[in-house]
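Appendix B. Worked example

We walk through a single record from start to finish. Start with the input: the chain for AMP-dependent synthetase/ligase domain-containing protein, Heterostelium pallidum, length 867.
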Amino acid sequence: MSIKDKYPKTIADFYILAKKKYGIILAITASKLEGEELKLVNKAKKRKKDKYDDHEDDVNDSEEDSSDSEKLKNQYKKYIQDQPVTKIHPDLYAFDNNTHYILVMRFSQYPYITIQRHPTNFKSVKIICQRTIGENEKKDILRFLRGFDYLDYSLTNNLNRQLKDLVLEVDFKEEVEEIITNGMNITCEIQPIMSGIPDKDDATKHSHRKDFINNTNCSFCSILIKSGEERHVCSECNNVILCPQCFLLPESNSVHTDSAPLPHFSSLETRTDDEYFVSNKSDTTYQCFINAFKCFPKRRCLGIRSIIPKSNDNPLGFGEYEWISYQDVYNRSEIFGTALSKLVPRESMIGVMLNNTPEWFYIDFGCLFYGYTIVPINHFINSREFIGVINNCQPSVMIVTESSLVKLVDILNKYNGLNMIIYVGNNPDPHLRKQIPYNITFKIFSEILNQYKDCKIAPHNPLNNGVLSLVYSSGSTGTPKGIIIKDKDFLASLLDYKLGYPCIQLSFLSLSHLERRADLKMIYNGGRLGIYTLPKRDYFINDVACLRPTIMWAPPSIWNEFYTKYQQSMNSLRTLYPQFKTSEIEQIMFPEFRKLLGDRIDSLTTGGALISEEVISMMRRCWGADKVFNIYGSTEAMIVSVNDIMLNQIQYRIIPLQEIIKEGLATENPIPIGELVVKSDQNVVGYYRNKEDTEKSFKDGWFHMGDLVEEYEPRKIRILDRIKNSFKSSTGLFICLEKIENYYYKSPFIRHIFVYGDPYHSYLIAIIVPSEKALSSFDTNLKMDLNQNKSLLEAIESEIQLISEEKQIIVYETPKVIHLDNTIWTNENNLINGSGKFNRPALKQYYLDLIDKIYKEKQNQSIDLLQ
Ligand SMILES: [Zn+2]
Ligand SMILES: [Zn+2]
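Next comes the structure step. The output line below is what the pipeline stores for this chain.
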């Protein structure tokens, strides 16, 4: 059989063959090929033509047309059945047939090209052209694909990098090459060249695994290591895998690439990461984790830093991370879960109020294995909110630490459903213990583990599609909103994409929020988590330098601090090299600057609040644009957009606000502005025992994000502010306070800024906490009354003016009164909440008296503030 015969000539043939060969459905187009589908398209075109132009009956194939999704849907009816077709670009449509995500692109000078991928493994990208393409065309297409950011955002995070690698490496298979050389006008296939592409027969048997890497090569002797065969996988280097023979040879040390001191820790395994990711998948969260624990027993899971004597070299007294293996985490979780199953009825609510510690994870998995619902409660919560939360979720057990026990004891008389308190730590305060009523059992976590470690492990008894967790949204007022997290919600974030190995992350944000999802995703992927050592921010950098994470999630407040550091270095270097341009100084400075986060960062993510353009563009210049992701979402809807681009699976609408309509802005402004509402499978079902808020936020499957957005390009969304931070000022303009604050973080003199405005006053007030730099430049400190320091005040006022001019901030949006304050916002004073965001309701409360006073004073002074 000649090569020619192996390839189909018509689309119908191609479809049948592809389906047989790969067990997948392809979307294919009819352009320039003969066959049934071509006629179908022609008919559709003809019908349209007939309607408008009776004279025209000769239908031209190459004509620019069919940008209409209904028509496209008709065209592919046979293949996509009734799947929704999303238009994501005039030349790009997407279908999702549940097993494969399919994109159909239309190039102006090329025929249709389809790209399809397995939804969870991007390595299975295949590009199929519907006709022969030449060398130059190929280059053009690749160039086009590389610049095609539509692909990037459907994949999120470090998959982008994989895509880029992949497209760069894309090449023709030998036999296809021959066809091209022979100039045959038939379908060709472009497949990425990867090591160990599985052979076709195997692929037919396990079609879902077809493009996964299931064979690999020893990094030292290159011998093929097949699926199921033993190999040692390095936990530091990217893709360093040794066969058992080479592993024993001292010479094999030469293959390690990471800068960690040798020997590197390796774990003995039998499958590739791709295989693990797929085979560990299950339709329950419980089973996914069980699979992960079974597959990675030797891998490092959780790390805490060792304590060493303080010295000049090590003033903090913390040494390297010491690691707890997956096996040990699993065992301890099982012991704890067994104990719980003997002490507490299944399906009870378990409140957890802890810092990030290994115990947190044992509790989390113990509850998952034995059927309990975890309710994480941020330990910075205030008493009023705490009482609300605890009465809403009604836990029978509370797990606390030294600081949270104080809070719990304080409110025990406001809730009577508690049966047990479990204390994590040593030596609980006897005075506090005395205040606990007799009907509440008090236990110490380490004692439970000791007591049950030799007992028979109880059989697992996970919840069957139950509520795995309730997550309370922070800083809200009124009835607490406990977001119901079910199995499917957890699965969505575990399985959305695969993380490359090694993946290492610092667990430092409160586990009562997004950090927990991110951390659990690491564990499902076989990665490891270094747990932060001390609650002091100064030590955070020290932890990061020690851990050298590959992935970093942080809210804007952390990145703002990096930006302040950047500005300080920039200023001092500028005096050294006055002749250099900013970009040249950055060249000098960035290598050192990057080291602040270790030297193996793969992806940096910001989210949870607005970040200013200066900060994120500095991050992109420093760490590389392809590594920085600005995500937007909520616990209720999960990730909705990445780098402003709405994810493909999200349907959305923008509902104009009444105020905007009244002001006529909606009609004058061609850009849609309004509240974002979204719909997708990722949406949670609602709030626990809170019908009112559930009905308000979830309507017919649409979730109201509560944010004001503008759609500046199709599917590109800019977040302006929380709707509740926005208001119509007395001058009739719509003002977004958080957006305004973000402009001014550019100034090196500003540590924190809180801008206040309301509909009753015609101008805004800014409360500013000056930066270290500002304080030292003006020879003052936070103990002084800063407003008395006229030169400091003037300097900051002129910063505000300068930035306002530079950013062309309209006059009503520029704060007219600047007041300096000496309170640093922290978790402890509740001005920053557990997820690291500025706690706006608390800030408002905190500064309200001051703000009232300022408005009153200014009124008396009758200053013309509006010029
Ligand atoms: Zn070898
Ligand atoms: Zn290594």
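Two observations about the output. The radius of gyration is 30 Å. Residues 234, 236-237, 240, 256, 258, 264 surround zinc ion (ligand 2) (CB under 6 Å).
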